[in-house]
């Protein structure tokens, strides 16, 4: 009832609120100050103090599926993005649910907001298809677009960070562009977002702006002046950082003070490293912190612009991340990667210039675990650290008594689309749009949580279900089942009580077999309804993406003989390693 009254009010209002969605990339649960971080994020602090933080907001654990659900309110499988395009298996690529691109049987919120009289703008990472022009954001409801179509891209140049691509492409309103010499991704994305708003300033139409940052996706890069702020911050290592953030998260009230927290078995012994290894790893994390800091600075530029033009007080701002922190470190996955990095991709890993132009930087599993603190796991996995991320909603719709507060209601990325439409005073058309059958939204409207201090919009029978790359989860009530594959996991279903045990330290399926069975049955229904395709036993999303990229590069690219030889050696090495592992 609250949402209906709110929508009626917005529809009748002379000034509909502007809506800005800011999406970080691979940002962990405690990577910003409002969620316990030591990283300087004053502008996100401001949004949190004026807005509402969510302690239990879930995404998928991989980027493109999250983006598909955010923009449509439809499950990622039914939207065509059950897995990222770069990591599809041959079996998956034959399914309409596994195209890796946004189906035409879904309607984006950009389309519906444009129909409702909004200017619709998009800047940053798209990752939902571009080779068919009809998949471009300029053809999916966005009036003005400046976008990078891939899973990630360099933050300084147009060189590719993966063998999958010849170079990092950028498009403006559907046409390829060349980046300026002084390009840095976070600055560029905000520059373009401001220019898009400025173009229509004064015409009395509200705007919807979607900013999709590259921070802090691989390659992790930041201007030197931001990195230097943190050179002394991480010298005590990842376990110390994880413990510090755990305490900060509990002090903020985001999780219970007595919640047990597990240590991931992928976390290395910091004290066992050499002094040089410690120096290098602490620098890696300093660059990561600098990248978050720089993103926050440029978000501040956008907020100051909105204030300067008198629109800040009439703008709803949603900040979140697409998934948890990235644990992948290609250098530890393949001894040949340094050759690929240097000779094929054109990068170095020199400590003195780490994170700067032509530098390839990651943080690895140990610091990724700290970035997700106090939760377990990280990107690609169905543990809380892969799926639970920050979300802040700020703006004129927020009830005054909720400013600076925390909502402990569950929320899922599919919920953002119906929430945004409700804020705009419009709604999804259901299963038919302009005479064409479409997928109906299945997310929930969160407006009652924002306007009426309602405790939750989820009943004890509602579910949040997820699957990508064979890792899966289902949440119902306070319980969750999760399944994680790979050498560091046991490839078994487990049951957890998320309120008492958000760190997922104590599996309780043997204690509550009826609840465990019920959630497994719910998941089976989910897989049937959404066309989930099992992956091979030895499937690894990161390695599959690398394998697909090398094969694609060989097929599509004219390169010199040395490069071809290098690629063939890499493919051969991958085959040998795979055979040896199967024998073991």
Automatic annotation (TrEMBL):
SUPFAM superfamilies: Alkaline phosphatase-like (SSF53649). The keyword Acetylation does not apply. Residues 17-425 form the Sulfatase N-terminal domain. Keywords: Calcium, Hydrolase, Membrane, Metal-binding, Transmembrane, Transmembrane helix. Pfam families: Sulfatase. One of its GO terms (molecular function) is arylsulfatase activity. This is Arylsulfatase. It comes from Oceanicoccus sagamiensis.
């Amino acid at each position: 009832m609250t949402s209906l009254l709110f929508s009626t009010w917005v529809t009748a209002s002379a000034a509909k609120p502007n809506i800005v969605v800011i999406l970080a990339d691979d940002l962990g649960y405690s990577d910003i100050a409002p969620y316990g971080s030591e990283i300087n994020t004053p502008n996100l602090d401001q949004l949190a103090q004026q807005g509402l933080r969510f302690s239990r907001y879930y995404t998928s654990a991989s980027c493109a599926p999250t983006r598909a659900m955010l923009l449509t309110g439809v499950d990622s499988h039914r939207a065509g993005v059950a897995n990222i395009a770069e990591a599809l298996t041959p079996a998956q690529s034959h399914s309409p649910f596994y195209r890796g691109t946004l189906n035409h049987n879904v309607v984006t919120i950009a389309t519906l907001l444009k129909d409702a009289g909004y200017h619709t703008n998009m800047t940053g990472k798209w990752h939902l298809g571009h080779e068919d022009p009809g998949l471009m954001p300029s053809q999916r409801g966005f009036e003005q677009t400046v976008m990078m179509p891939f899973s990630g891209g360099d933050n300084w140049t147009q060189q590719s960070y993966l063998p999958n691509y010849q170079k990092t492409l950028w498009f403006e309103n559907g046409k390829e562009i060349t980046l300026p010499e002084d390009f840095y991704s976070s600055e560029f994305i905000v520059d373009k977002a401001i220019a898009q708003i400025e173009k229509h300033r004064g015409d009395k139409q509200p705007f919807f702006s979607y900013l999709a940052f590259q921070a802090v996706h691989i390659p992790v890069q930041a201007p030197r002046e931001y990195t230097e702020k943190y050179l002394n911050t991480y010298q005590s290592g990842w376990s110390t950082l994880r413990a510090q953030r755990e305490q900060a998260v509990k002090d903020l009230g985001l999780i219970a003070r007595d919640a047990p927290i597990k240590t991931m078995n992928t976390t290395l012994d910091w004290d066992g490293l050499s002094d040089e290894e410690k120096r290098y790893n602490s620098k890696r994390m300093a660059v990561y912190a600098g990248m978050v800091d720089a993103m926050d600075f440029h978000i501040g530029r956008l907020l100051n612009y909105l204030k300067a033009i008198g629109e800040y007080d009439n703008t709803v701002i949603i900040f979140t991340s697409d998934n948890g922190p990235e644990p992948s470190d290609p250098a530890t996955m393949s001894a040949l990667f340094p050759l690929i990095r240097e000779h094929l991709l054109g990068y170095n890993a020199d400590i003195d210039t780490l994170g700067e132009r032509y530098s390839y930087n990651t943080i690895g599993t140990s610091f990724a675990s700290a970035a997700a603190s106090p939760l377990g796991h990280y990107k690609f996995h169905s543990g809380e650290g892969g799926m639970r991320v920050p979300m802040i909603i700020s703006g004129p719709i927020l009830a005054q008594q909720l400013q600076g507060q925390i909502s402990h209601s569950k929320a899922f990325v599919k919920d953002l689309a119906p929430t945004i439409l409700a804020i705009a005073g419009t709604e999804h058309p259901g299963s038919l749009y302009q005479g064409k059958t479409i997928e109906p939204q299945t997310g929930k409207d969160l407006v009652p949580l924002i306007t009426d201090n309602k405790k939750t919009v989820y009943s004890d029978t509602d579910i949040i279900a997820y699957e990508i790359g064979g890792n899966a989860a289902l949440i119902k009530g306070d319980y969750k089942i999760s399944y994680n594959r790979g050498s560091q996991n046991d490839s078994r279903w487990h049951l957890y009580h998320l309120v008492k045990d958000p760190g997922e330290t104590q599996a309780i399926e043997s204690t509550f077999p009826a609840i465990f069975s019920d959630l497994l049955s719910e998941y089976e229904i989910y897989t049937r309804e959404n066309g989930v395709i099992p992956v091979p036993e030895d499937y690894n999303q990161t390695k599959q993406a690398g394998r697909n990229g090398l094969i694609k590069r060989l097929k599509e690219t004219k390169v010199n003989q040395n490069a071809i030889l290098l690629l063939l050696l890499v493919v051969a090495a991958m085959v040998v390693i795979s055979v040896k592992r199967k024998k073991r």
